[in-house]
Design goal:
Layout: E1 16-17, H1 28-32, E2 36-37, H2 45-49, H3 58-69, H4 82-91, E3 99-107, E4 111-119, E5 124-130, E6 144-149, E7 153-154, E8 162-164, E9 168-181, H5 206-210, H6 229-238, E10 241-247, E11 256-260, H7 278-290, H8 296-324, H9 329-337, E12 354-359, E13 366-368, E14 375-377, H10 413-419
Antiparallel strand pairs: 1-2, 3-4, 3-9, 4-5, 5-6, 5-7, 6-12, 8-9, 9-10, 10-11, 11-12, 13-14
Helix pairs in contact: 3-4
Region (Disordered): 186-227, 266-345
Organism: Lophiostoma macrostomum CBS 122681
Biased composition (Acidic residues): 320-331
Length: 436
């Protein structure tokens, strides 16, 4: 069935398919010379991402798309095969899934940032935008990061790698499962021993953790405290403090962060658009309070006249806002509930709240040196007390769109843009990572 032109936004020319796999040094121009015009009748990727086109099986749709554009990379590039990626997602398609994804988002106005999305129900994920990406150096001079709440997303948004002129490019920087650790840790106990899941191996790597939940229709057994990870996340989110361990493909073993919402940022403002007619209403109220009852009939007529004039003025203001605001009805609903269509904001996320994000050095396997005040890798990284193993990890730096490849397809941001036919796209310049 042909797709209506109104459902497709900023995608020209059509996508190309059956590209041959290339090495890391391949260019988009080289791939274009070996491509053929696609004859598929599937909806455009950007239209699906924007919710303009509906599909029944998101996993099958995105799996096919990612497979089509997957390329070969060097051995030192962290990768998750398409099949492993699909199985990971499928295992978390149930009420207590604990899937996460980190998207590198090259947005035309906001610039490069990293979106951390955490599944909290069968259909929905809470989302944080991290402008500089996750911290990777326990001794960095810039230890903190800002993490800004955005809209609640659909779980299937975790599958997306796409690009358009309107939204820029999205690539999968990392993905896996998460564990919510206790808020307070006993001082006598090392952080590397703190994996609270009995159904996964303590301090297991990403692959063994991913393979824990083998059947999405058969939820995992109850944990020690009787709560699955997604319910721990909901509780921690609502208490404004989250100690989060991410079991990913790119991120190192036992990588743990804390997210804290300062009380000054804990606002509950409505996401509905404020009407500009409110000052007129207050002025009208003051006039009514100052009026006398000596001429009730004339006052009633005057008030009726003022109400009619106010209604007319409000209608003109609303019309002006409609002329400026290009959002459709569903976008108004999105603002009101802070959730994209298909998702549910049952966790209580509020748009644009600013959280404070830190690397949790102890939980990540580092110990504080007695002299010098520097963090160093713990010699008992496996937490069994025998002194062997390597805790912590080698410091890493988030380097941005020119260097970092997708863990699923191996593509750079510009290659995602080229594959989606987004020619001539120029993202916002000036992004600088934190290297010290």
């Amino acid at each position: 069935m042909p797709i209506l032109s109104t459902l497709i936004r900023d995608i020209s020319p059509p996508r190309l398919s059956k590209r041959r796999k290339l090495s890391q040094t391949s260019t988009i121009a080289d791939r274009d010379s070996n491509a053929t015009v696609s004859t598929k009748t599937d909806p455009a990727l950007a239209a699906v991402e924007a919710g303009k086109a509906k599909i029944h099986d998101h996993l099958a749709y995105f799996k096919e798309n990612l497979k089509e554009f997957s390329i070969e990379t060097r051995d030192n590039c962290p990768r998750l095969s398409i099949q492993e990626f699909a199985e990971l997602y499928e295992r978390n398609q149930y009420d207590h899934g604990n899937h996460f994804v980190i998207h590198q988002h090259n947005h035309p106005r906001a610039g490069v940032h990293y979106d951390l999305r955490l599944q909290f129900s069968k259909s929905s994920s809470v989302s944080f935008a991290i402008p500089k990406g996750l911290p990777g150096n326990p001794n960095s001079k810039s230890k903190g990061r800002m993490a800004i709440e955005t809209r609640v997303h659909n779980l299937w948004n975790h599958l997306i790698e796409s690009a358009s002129h309107k939204t820029g490019s999205l690539l999968i920087w990392d993905t896996g499962t998460y564990t919510v650790l206790p808020r307070k840790m006993p001082h006598h106990q090392k952080a590397s021993q703190h994996t609270t899941d009995d159904d996964s191996s303590p301090d297991s790597d990403s692959n063994s953790t991913i393979k824990t939940f083998s059947n999405p229709s058969n939820p995992p057994p109850a944990l020690k405290n009787g709560l699955p990870e997604n319910e721990k996340l909901i509780h921690a989110f609502q208490t404004r403090y989250i100690r989060l361990r991410l079991h990913g493909t790119r991120l190192p073993k036992n990588y743990t962060i804390t997210l804290r919402l300062p009380s000054a940022n804990d606002f509950g403002k409505s996401t509905a658009r404020r009407k500009r007619r409110q000052p007129a209403q207050r002025k009208q109220q003051r006039r009514r309070n100052d009026s006398t009852d000596s001429e009730p009939d004339s006052n009633a007529n005057a008030n009726s006249s003022r109400n009619a004039n106010q209604t007319s003025a409000a209608a003109r203001v609303d019309k002006e806002e409609e002329d400026i605001d290009t959002d459709e009805d569903e976008d108004t609903t999105t603002r009101l509930h802070n959730a994209y269509p298909g998702s549910t904001n049952s966790i209580g996320s509020i748009h644009q709240r600013q959280w404070f994000l830190l690397l949790d050095q102890r939980s990540s396997g580092f110990v504080l040196r007695k002299s010098g005040g520097l963090w160093e890798r713990d010699g008992d990284g496996d937490g069994d007390g025998d002194g062997d193993g390597d805790g912590g990890f080698e410091p890493f730096v988030v380097r941005g769109r020119e260097f970092e490849r997708s863990v699923v397809t191996g593509r750079l941001a510009r290659e995602v843009e080229g594959d989606e036919g987004v020619e001539g796209y120029v993202g916002r310049a000036g992004w600088i990572g934190i290297e010290t």
